[in-house]
């Protein structure tokens, strides 16, 4: 672990947070970040904030009042927070979703570290994106980040499927990719090299429909399944991968790489992604 030489911040106690609905209480981020913050010697705390949808704007304004130094945003607010921020990074502006907010006297600036986290995780797995064909499940902020980074890394083709055709169309029109209907996935093989689950569902109880779909899904040439969720004891994406002898990666590595980028944005401190993985694996 090394500190970025140009980083300037005081050593008064800082407070960071994560914003979501009731699902925030299931997030591994508070335990993970608090462990790493202590490891690097920062006087700081990371806390979960459960926010009702109708109070989101008020919650964002409160970050300034409470002098919160930085915030993470997760499902279901990654896209909804955008209108409440003062500025966006270039990537967050294109993607239309924010997962990290830097709070300064100049205002709230939103970033998307999801995309970089996926890029770093794929590189760590040795997966070559240029020229690949990918199938992405989902249309929310995580899916938008995945499609953005796959396009940026020059994937040849990106198929996108989701429950809401209007959201699929919006994603393809603004970021890229090609819509594919569910019945096409059920009716015959789809030659792709990468399958990404960017929905919130990995367990059969979370989405019986998706679980049934994977039973009929055939993807000749697939070299990797990436499920952005992690820690599910029952995971139909993992089971599908095992049946088809496809390497499987869950969301632990992308989360660790994303957290590494987030901490650097908040503090200027650079730690390895392995620090975050160790914090999650304790």
Topology record:
Blueprint: E1 2-3, E2 14-20, H1 29-39, E3 44-50, H2 56-65, E4 70-73, E5 87-88, H3 90-95, E6 100-104, E7 107-111, H4 114-124, E8 133-137, H5 141-152, E9 157-161, H6 165-174, E10 178-179, H7 182-187, E11 194-197, H8 208-216, E12 224-227, H9 236-243, E13 248-249, H10 252-267, E14 269-270, H11 273-280
Parallel strand pairs: 2-3, 2-4, 5-7, 8-9, 8-11, 9-10, 11-12, 12-13
Antiparallel strand pairs: 1-14, 4-6, 6-7
What does it look like?
This protein has 282 residues and is of the alpha/beta class. It has two domains: 2-112 and 255-280, Leucine Dehydrogenase, chain A, domain 1 (Rossmann fold); 126-246, NAD(P)-binding Rossmann-like Domain (Rossmann fold, 3-Layer(aba) Sandwich), CATH 3.40.50.720. The protein has eleven helices and 14 strands. The strands form three sheets. A six-stranded mixed sheet has the order 3-2-4-6-7-5. Helix 1 (29-39) links the parallel strand 2 and strand 3. Helix 1 crosses helix 11 (273-280), helix 4 crosses helix 10 and helix 10 (252-267) crosses helix 11. The radius of gyration is 19 Å and the shape is globular.
């Amino acid at each position: 672990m090394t500190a970025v030489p140009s980083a300037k911040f005081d050593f008064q106690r800082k407070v960071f947070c994560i914003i979501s609905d009731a699902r925030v209480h299931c997030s591994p981020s508070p335990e993970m970040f608090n462990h790493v913050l202590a490891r690097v010697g920062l006087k700081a705390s990371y806390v979960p904030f459960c926010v009702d949808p109708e109070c989101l704007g008020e919650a964002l304004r409160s970050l300034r009042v409470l002098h919160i130094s930085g915030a993470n945003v997760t499902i279901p607010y990654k896209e909804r927070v955008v209108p409440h921020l003062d500025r966006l990074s270039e990537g967050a502006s294109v993607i239309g979703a924010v997962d990290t907010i830097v709070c300064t006297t100049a205002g709230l600036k939103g970033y998307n570290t999801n995309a970089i986290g996926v890029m770093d995780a794929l590189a760590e797995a040795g997966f070559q994106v240029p020229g690949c064909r990918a199938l992405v499940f989902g249309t929310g902020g995580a899916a938008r980040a995945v499609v953005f980074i796959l396009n940026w890394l020059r994937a040849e083709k990106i198929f996108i499927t989701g429950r809401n055709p209007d959201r699929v169309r919006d994603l393809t029109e603004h970021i890229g990719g090609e819509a594919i209907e569910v019945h096409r996935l059920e009716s015959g093989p789809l030659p792709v090299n990468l399958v990404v689950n960017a929905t919130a569902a990995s367990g059969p109880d979370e989405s019986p429909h998706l679980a049934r779909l994977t039973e009929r899904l055939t993807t000749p040439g697939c070299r990797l399944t990436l499920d952005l969720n992690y820690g599910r004891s029952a995971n139909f994406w993992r089971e599908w991968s095992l049946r088809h002898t496809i390497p499987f990666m869950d969301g632990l590595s992308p989360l660790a790489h994303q957290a590494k980028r987030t901490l650097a944005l908040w503090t200027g401190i650079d730690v390895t992604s392995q620090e975050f993985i160790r914090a999650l694996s304790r």
